[in-house]
What we know:
- By secondary structure, the protein is mainly alpha-helical.
- The chain has two domains: 5-156 and 214-298, no CATH class; 166-210, no CATH class.
- The protein has eleven helices and six strands.
- It has helices at 24-45, 53-80, 82-87, 102-120, 124-134, 136-149, 186-195, 201-210, 217-239, 246-263, 277-298; strands at 5-6, 12-17, 20-23, 163-164, 271-272, 275-276.
- The strands form three sheets. The chain has a two-stranded parallel sheet with strand order 1-4.
- β2 and β3 form a beta hairpin.
- α5 packs across α9.
- The radius of gyration is 22 Å and the shape is elongated.
Amino acid sequence: MEHFYLHKLSPFLVQFSEGFGVRWYGLAYVLSFLVANYLFQWLSRRRLAPLAPENVSDFITWAALFGVLLGGRVGYVLLYDFQRLLQDPLSLFRVWEGGMASHGGILGLVAFTFYYARRHQISWTGIGDSLVSVAPPGLFLVRIANFINGELYGRFAQVPWAVQFPTELRESPELLEKTAFAQMPAETVVALVRKGGPEAVDLERVLRDVLPPRHPSQIYEALLEGVVLFTVLWFLRTRIRVPRGMLTGIFFVLYAVLRIVGEQFREPEDFNYGMPRGVFLSLFLIVIGLVFVFFALRRPEYEAGSPGTIQG
């Protein structure tokens, strides 16, 4: 299997000591919020968002904290790690151990924008349309960070760009059972491969023989949920006159469809009713999206700067 790429990337951009440093995953979130703030400001200055430019940064900051981070964390614990929560309720607050769910983050943003819009007496669907238009670059960055971490990898594959992930040993330590490294803990193996050097040469050779090649599904999802979704929504937001709430509905539906496509290449973490959990949860997003589309068409309202809108 020498022709497949053996994943060696470190989760740290800068590492100060064992387990401590600047992680790519955290940096991806920071960059996501900065990009979202810039794009939202751009929309606001062109009256394509119902929020004044001077209020955008505060909104993005609170949306990041209470929508994305809190919603994503709560969603992960409830949807993917509920048994641990029952045994150790404080695990909900140990965010440094990892664990964020995109479905939870999306629903967290829905709840936060509803509260924010009611409190400031602005259009909920209007602010939601702008927010979903600037969110996909963040999805792209976080999926790239997933790839760097070697997590959420794909199903078995024989494509030329398939990747072998040493992090798979955390779930399947038996892969090393018949090798000279059988007694080595999975974390030690992963750390040695990432460090590289002469001591890792024999280990890498063994890993190339025992690790199955997999789809780099994180990259697929980055392109689908990040590039494709952003292209569609940004075009509609800036070039087409659409009623308030329509973009939010399209985001839910299109994100869910693209997520379902991506799940066909991703190793399932769990199942619900015979479907990978990511697919199962996405079906609910489609229903929510269609509800937004229905009400957007029923009582159409438009942003002041929408293409074709008469300025008064």
